[in-house]
Amino acid sequence: MSLLLQNVSYVYEQGTPMENTGLHPLSLEVKDDEVLAVIGATGSGKSTLIQMMNGLNKPSTGNIYYNGEDIFAEKYDRRRLRSQVGLVFQYPEYQLFEETVLKDVCFGPKNQGLSEEEAIGRARRAMRRVGLTEDYEERSPFDLSGGEKRRAAIAGVLAMEPKILILDEPTAGLDPEGREELLTELLALRRERQMGIVMVSHSMEDVARMADRIAVLSHGKLLMQGTPREIFREESGLLEAGLALPAACHILHLLKEKGLPVGTDALSVEEAKEKILAAFS
Amino acid sequence: MSIIRTEELTYQYKSYEEGQEQETLKQALQGLSFSVEKGEFIAILGRNGSGKSTLAKHLNALLLPSEGTVWVEEMKTSDEARLWDIRSTAGMVFQNPDNQIVATVVEEDVGFGPENMGVPTEEIWERVDKSLKAVGMAAYAKSAPHRLSGGQKQRVAIAGVMAMKPKCIIFDESTAMLDPIGRREVLRTVRELNEKEGITVLLITHYMEEAALAGRIMIMDRGRLVMDGTPRSIFSRRQELEALGLQVPQTTALADALRESGLPLSEGICQEEDLAEELAALYGRRKEAQA
Ligand SMILES: Nc1ncnc2c1ncn2[C@@H]1O[C@H](COP(=O)(O)OP(=O)(O)OP(=O)(O)O)[C@@H](O)[C@H]1O
Ligand SMILES: [Mg+2]
């Protein structure tokens, strides 16, 4: 069970003088129960890529298979696909449209054919998971603060209980506590539901912490793919791609430049601490 | 002289819902009094919904206080006759650039503000060039904004505000959607504007690393100002911060962890360079002592 992208490419405004390659042919697999992080500079093709994953963008070449079925085959039910492969957009404003937050979060599950009651139950659970308490239910989504809107948009997709959850910059605009809680919830959901997660993020710290696998995009090409440890070892490749090292890792590099005998291979504060203490002992 | 001053600033959002007789009020700011001196670089932190954006909108008269007063360079923001002066003194850059871009060509978009201000054509182009270079978007001067990525658009929006040469710029999570290099470029630009051109900067952010660059941090909670101080003093109060939904930067967390493990590092270190320097110095002394 998985989502498989085979030699997919994407050309914007194909056949016009404005033609512009968004993505060069690449292959990628999203497994159930796995967190795949997609990183890359702005404009590197991340959003184009993930919008193909749930059938919003049709690849110019190549095929996409969900559980072995070609999602662009003639009779394929792409509407149903969108409730199984849920996408949270980069800007939550584009996702919120109902009068109240509760109605908005209910929209997906209702569309899936659930009863009002079931939909509300799901919506409430999803809202709690992202830290939206009961008093947000009757508020207009347009009157929320930036971070509150993002929480509402994420809840709306969670309420559909997708098999694969794709999030474009899920923690942008969240306060540190909200960010921490969301990441923890996502990992819990993966465990509970064997949900696959694709996460586009500019936060190398979040990526280092969450990802099983990282795909690095640069100028519309898949530059490299690997575990966080493998990827964050490639400092020059990352810088070339407009990215950076997680803070903990960066400090170790600075220390090494200053002549301290430290290993630089750390993904978290805890690991960096161990490396530094080792140098001092 | 202070460039911004508020006294007992209070604000309630009013919303009218269908079928409801009465408007609902949402208290967003509660008796804020503070002042900002010319040339300061202030980071504003606080959990989601704490009132940061609401405050920002008061500083260039996008919102007017329900109670209390806001002055921008001695102009009351409620003085309608001075609206244009207020807005050109205090510029604002938001998170989502799509709502800020007006023209169909990047350079025209950046020139839009100065043109409206009546700046001579020659100078408009100078300003446009300079601003686009500063945000690393000079190569896109002739591009169509809608074809740029989110982060690229954001840099154009920042250039647009910079081209109006405001005395104060309020950035409301303007780096939130940028990649690490883009963010670094924008922050460097922000610092240069502050240091070289003396522009006062108010930076609203959820990135503690960014706040560490400021000279002063103000923290909001439930519409009130609850902490105000230097990054070092703020980031050495970890528990209080966490109670406010915030964190210390990873650098500070690492320094704290090392201190707890016995390395004598100073409190509240919040910049990577500073930590690396203290550690290198400490390491050097230990080596000498051992020799
Ligand atoms: N247009 C509006 N109508 C009613 N209430 C609003 C409106 N905009 C914001 N609010 C409410 O006012 C409070 C402060 O919102 P504000 O946008 O200032 O928060 P913020 O600190 O900027 O949050 P964030 O970190 O999420 O951007 C919140 O409770 C929010 O829900
Ligand atoms: Mg805000």
Low-confidence stretches of chain A: none
CATH fold annotation of the largest domain in chain B: Rossmann fold
What is the CATH architecture descriptor of the largest domain in chain A? 3-Layer(aba) Sandwich
Mean pLDDT over the full residue set of chain B? 91
Order of helices and strands of chain A: EEEHEEHEHHHEHEHEEHHHH
Q: Write down the Rg of chain B.
A: 21 Å
Biggest sheet strand order of chain B reads 6-7-8-3-9-10
CATH class of the largest domain in chain B: Alpha Beta
Describe the 3D structure:
The complex is a heterodimer of chains A (281) and B (291). The model of chain A has no long low-confidence stretch (mean pLDDT 92). By secondary structure, chain A is of the alpha/beta class. The N and C termini of chain A lie far apart (48 Å). Helices cover 40% and strands 22% of the residues of chain A. In chain A, the strands form two sheets. A six-stranded mixed sheet of chain A has the order 6-7-8-3-9-10, sandwiched between helices. The longest helix of chain A is centred in the middle third of the chain and has 18 residues, at 176-193. Chain A has helices at residues 46-53, 78-84, 101-111, 116-129, 146-158, 176-193, 204-210, 228-232, 235-240, 247-257, 269-280, and strands at 2-12, 20-31, 35-40, 61-66, 69-70, 85-88, 164-168, 196-200, 213-218, 221-226. Chain B is of the alpha/beta class. Chain B has two domains: 2-248, P-loop containing nucleotide triphosphate hydrolases (Rossmann fold); 249-291, no CATH class. Chain B has eleven helices and ten strands. Chain B has helices spanning 52-59, 83-89, 106-116, 121-134, 150-162, 180-197, 208-211, 231-235, 238-243, 250-260, 272-290, and strands spanning 2-15, 24-37, 41-46, 67-72, 75-76, 90-93, 168-172, 200-204, 216-221, 224-229. In chain B, a hairpin with a 2-residue loop joins strand 4 (67-72) and strand 5 (75-76). Chain B starts with a strand and ends with a helix. The model of chain B has no long low-confidence stretch (mean pLDDT 91). Classes of the chains: A alpha/beta (281), B alpha/beta (291). Chains A and B meet through helix 5, helix 6, helix 10 and helix 11 of A and helix 5, helix 6, helix 10 and helix 11 of B. Bound molecules: adenosine-5'-triphosphate and magnesium ion. Residues 52-53, 172 of chain B line the site of magnesium ion. Adenosine-5'-triphosphate sits between chains B (13, 15, 26, 28, 46, 48-54) and A (143-148, 175).
